[in-house]
Amino acid sequence: MQFRMHSIGHLCNIPDIYWKSLGPDVSDLGNPTHYIDPEITGLKISDIPKDYKTLMEKYTGTENLFKNNGNKIFSIPKEFGSLWWRADQFTRLITDLKTSFSNTTPPKNYKEEQDEKLPYNQSVFSMLQYMGIMGHYVGDAGQPFHATSDHDGYRAEHGGIHSYYEEQVVVYFGPDMEKLIVDKAKTIKDPKLTSGTTVEIMQHLSLLASKDIEKALKLDPVLKKSELKNDKGMDIKTPAVRSPPEVGFKKYKDLIVLHMARSVVALAHLWDQSFHDAGSPSLQAYRSYRYPHTPDFIPPDYIGKIEPKKSEATK
After folding, report:
1. Is the pTM for the entire model greater than 0.90?
2. Domains in the chain: how many in total?
3. Which residues have CB under 8 Å from 169's CB, separation 6+?
4. Which domain holds residue 88?
5. What pLDDT band is residue 305 in, cutting at 50, 70 and 90?
């Protein structure tokens, strides 16, 4: 994978870039896979059922405790989210390649190396795609505001904090960003990030991140608090006024490095484990130049049949 870092990095961004450009049907299915909103059920993160079917059966139709206005939860996949199970889906997709790898033969010459239809090349290409895309969701779990219903901070009067924290201040890192994260990751000795099922690891990652929400809010350089008003059933949001991102970067640098480093530890383990579960296939013969510019959207496979919302153009 060291020889494919450029494509792995690109793939990590796919759920937030290419897939979000594919229209409302894809967004309707894909967007809720980036988070969990535990407050709608009243559950602590540590108490959330690890079986998604159980979560759906128990809480569909119950009161939405975050909105606290008598509204019912009509869809766990769309309202609660499914971040942990989305990462698990990609580990399963990698593991399921074991049969394909056992029935393939590595290329024997340059022509076969560049043959996209060669079964061996197809299997390796799929594995790299799944690993790269999975990285996005493991990264999401390390971000505190992907583990709360108040994902943009308006209930806490810090409206607009989500993109400020994960995007606007991050661009002020220098070229040493990767080294800072890897060095920090090497100091993390948390066995719960490297043992158990994928869902258990993701749950622990979200739990750690959620415990830092208050710290992130406290460090937020707010100059004027945000406002949230309800006008005839519609939320009217006025974001907080805060110091420029370069100021926020100085405050958030260490916390962001910690959150990314935790995800790095978990992701490295999940990559390694899923690779071994796929039979530890030999990858040294893979020399294809094929690049995963626009991988097909992969619908979540753990929520049963849910009809995607139709746009006006497709009704």
Report:
1. yes
2. 1
3. 245, 246, 248, 249, 252, 256
4. 2-35+83-277
5. low
